[in-house]
Design brief:
Length: 340
């Protein structure tokens, strides 16, 4: 058979790899952050501010992490058509988000260590100069957050697929996940680095003003520790979100139950095995085995039932027909003592 004869039944797996707006935005933010990082580190040393110095050093981690996010977008786009990636390259972006979350943990630890050192051995601080640099850093963070926020609003993509007549099907849809908001975890990780940096900049400014006006030198390292706790909490949430996707821990998602309900809607069919995992920001693939008393039921019919759920863009279906001697109007769910 000529391979051209299979063109109507073949498809690529580039489910979610076109994020040019997010890629451009993260690249711009990376360079802006790198420049401000150098300014804050030099100013922190020159003015002897722990808050400012910590903000500058952990900004270096932000620059690296945001650069990693930009690289992940570029890599996912470059290899989008590579057949070695069975379900596309979207998880490259998730892996970058996970790594960024680990960077945030490192940032938090660094802030704690530095702050403890300054509590134990206080150093004189040039408050006025440090405040000016801290405000400048905050303004830069606000600009970066605006850039990344624009990428989020303009980066919504519509995913398309093809319908085939075999057991491996794609469904043609504009995907709108009604279960949860649209989250680009790679972009979210870059955004969280900017937000964390902005938050610590605010704390640094507050600490410096308190020290300048009231002589509260201890406030500088204390604010550093408060910032470390908040950054650690944000990192924890991002680690959970990205790790869940990387480990395909999606079987508690509402779409799983909805797949079962639509497949079993005829009263004669039961889902005996089901696997659902995410292959894009808002799209899923599933592999299922169904046992039915309906001798006419086909995989094509089940795919038509599944098509009401636009987020299921790829399905692999296996059907076992069970012919009963006595008439059975419907299958009941199996129990431990009553196997199918």
């Amino acid at each position: 058979m000529n391979t051209d004869d299979l063109s109507d039944w073949t498809h690529d797996h580039a489910f979610d790899s076109d994020n040019l707006a997010a890629e451009r935005s993260t690249r711009w933010v990376m360079w802006i952050t790198a420049v401000m990082m150098v300014v804050e580190i030099l100013a922190g040393w020159a003015f002897n501010s722990m808050s400012l110095l910590a903000d500058g050093w952990h900004m270096s981690s932000h620059a690296l992490a945001i650069g990693l996010s930009a690289m992940a977008y570029a890599t996912a786009r470059t290899y989008a058509k590579d057949p070695r990636f069975a379900f596309g390259t979207w998880k490259i972006e998730i892996l970058a988000g996970f790594a960024s979350a680990l960077f945030l943990v490192g940032v938090a630890l660094t802030m704690v260590i530095g702050s403890l050192e300054r509590l134990i051995s206080p150093q004189p601080i040039q408050f006025e100069e440090a405040i000016v640099v801290g405000v400048l850093g905050l303004l830069v963070n606000i600009v970066c957050a605006y850039i990344l926020g624009g990428a989020h609003h303009h980066g919504h993509t519509h995913e398309h697929a093809h319908v085939h007549s075999d057991d491996h099907a794609h469904h043609v849809h504009h995907v709108h996940d009604h279960h949860e908001p649209h989250h680009d975890l790679n972009l979210k990780s870059a955004y969280m680095h900017v937000v964390a940096d902005a938050f610590t900049s605010v704390l640094a400014i507050v600490a410096l003003i308190g020290g300048w006006l009231y002589g509260w030198a201890w406030l500088d390292p204390v604010m550093g520790m408060v910032g470390a706790v908040m950054v650690a909490l944000w990192a924890k949430n991002l680690i959970i979100d990205t790790a869940k996707v990387l480990l395909d821990r999606e079987m508690d998602h509402p779409v799983v139950q909805e797949i079962k309900e639509v497949v079993e809607s005829d009263g004669q069919t039961l889902v005996s095995d089901l696997h659902v995992w995410r292959v894009g920001k808002r799209v899923y693939t599933c592999a299922l085995t169904a046992v039915t008393h309906d001798p006419q039921l086909t995989a094509k019919q089940l795919r038509q039932r599944l098509s009401v759920h636009e987020e299921i863009i790829h399905s692999t279906i296996e059907i076992h027909h069970r012919h009963s001697v006595s008439a059975k109007p419907a299958l009941s769910h199996p129990t431990a003592n009553a196997p199918l």
